[in-house]
Amino acid sequence: ILLLLRNPKDVATSFYHFSNVMSPLPSYETWDDFFVAFMTKKMPWGCYFEYVSEWNKYADHENVMTITYEELKQNPVLGVKNIAAFFGISLAEKELQSVVERSSFQSMKKNSQKTHGAFGNILFRKGHVSDWKNLFSEDQNEKMDKTFEERVGGTKLGTKLKYQVYCKA
């Protein structure tokens, strides 16, 4: 099992934008309305913190590899090598480079019409790390920090998310 995680502030930011353009999902008048729903477990696919807490139980299992979106953005070559090794796939250098190039956010966004049809424009927005800084108020930032610490801060997956690096203003 490959478990891909992303920091909660960027998850909230991304899901806010996604929700407001994906008609079957609830849309939100404001970011503030969305933030309240996100923090009070009123998301269509459940609570981020409960999801991470539940997966934390399996973090040490040999058949589970956890990687973060931020790790893949920072060093995509190493990320692909680690994923391939986990699944027992041997990649020649040329194959490795092809996977890295084709799985980059820019490449996937560019090809999204071919791979995902009209849904591609909705699915691929920015792909940046720390876009949350454009939406979070100081109060929201503090609430998210507190909730993260209380719910998953000291866990293996909480540590893996490098919250101090990616989620502190």
UniProtKB/TrEMBL annotation:
InterPro entries: P-loop_NTPase, Sulfotransferase_dom. The keyword Heme does not apply. Residues 1-155 form the Sulfotransferase domain. Keywords: Transferase. It is an enzyme of class 2 (transferase). GO terms for molecular function: sulfotransferase activity. Pfam families: Sulfotransfer_1. Its EC number is 2.8.2.-. Belongs to the sulfotransferase 1 family. This is Sulfotransferase. The gene is Sult6b1_0.
